[in-house]
């Protein structure tokens, strides 16, 4: 996020207020939590209007203004979710939904903060991230006391899964945003994917180590596996850089995209490690022999997609993807996911998180503008049951989910012509919003193993035992957020340009020491200390 001093913050907010006046008055008026709709005149705190537990939450109806941001043009179809509708009826809490498109949100979110006119609740981590919250802490309520007094479901979830509290605790020791644990999430991130049709035509087995991978990529390059008589096969390709997953066999994993790993229980900055050096030397060999696309450093994603979905014949042999059908269009059925590739040490490594890719933070904020924080907390707590959570991830029971008499829950098939994922987004909050599915409850969820979430869980079995411990999802102080962009812009840029130079032209052995020295001169020690301090704070949360 943007680095701002106190003086710049004041100037920026004054400028943004001017923008509000000229551009955003109507939108902001709709999001303001003045609750002056005629039916919301009863103050909750100390008034006796709120029931301490159970439903309804309030005796006299209260309206909460709730803002959420949706991808692109998804719109507000999720409000038809019958669980949400039943909650509104049974809780006596009316929700005035303010739905923003992600296409417009970047222009609006700072404007809204600067105006001071915020809704009662902001739902979903796409809206405001860590640095937004840290740098504007006065706009959002600390939720610790509300959780303790009014959120028994969340408290129980935090006791069962302490990770929820760890990821939600900000550097000052307080909780400003509510977390989520998504259901039926895998352990692995992107996995190795290969063109199985090419392997079969050439009589090759799926590679299990880097030597076998080299042999396969070379055969893909030289033996015309797509059968068109042209030397147009591309063993591996990427946009803007090499595919960094190619370094995974060397133990390089980067789940948080900050160049940090955990090794032997300690944070490690991998761009100065021997493993990174050896991985780049191997990538140099692949590039030199044409096994990495020569255009990897210069093409954009549009050009890469055109190659992956070439209309005449498949062109790409090997990649790393979430699922094998993710990017290859009409050629998707030729690709399969394989087990992690073993590195020079004989070990297999896989990027992911052993605790699962389930935990999220910043899923719900209660703003300091809200007149009804206790009501908002009790309303949010209704999301933290197993049944509520699956209905806010896939869609309501009876719409997207069938509940069996044996206590199981099966996902219904999406309407013809609609992908399952798109259908779930239409019917629910999907990735966004508070939710918690207990690990024990997941055995009751039945997924189709041939598509979507069910397919990923099947593929997950290939590599879940090889997942390395990632650097955790830490948070930074306001001062650290000021320093990070200055440090990472220069350091990351230098690392990327040096990587491109070494892979395309060589020279890594001769220039390695000078490279490390240059990083030190650029403030690498200060950057690593920020990461280590954030890690220590995270690990200290119980």
From TrEMBL:
Annotated InterPro entries: Bact_solute-bd_prot1 (IPR050490), SBP (IPR006059)
The keyword Cell membrane is annotated on this UniProt entry: yes
Keyword list, A-Z: Cell membrane, Lipoprotein, Membrane, Palmitate, Signal
Region forming the signal peptide: 1-25
PANTHER family xref list: ARABINOSE-BINDING PROTEIN-RELATED (PTHR43649), POLYGALACTURONAN_RHAMNOGALACTURONAN-BINDING PROTEIN YTCQ (PTHR43649:SF33)
Protein name: Extracellular solute-binding protein
Source species of the chain: Paenibacillus aurantiacus
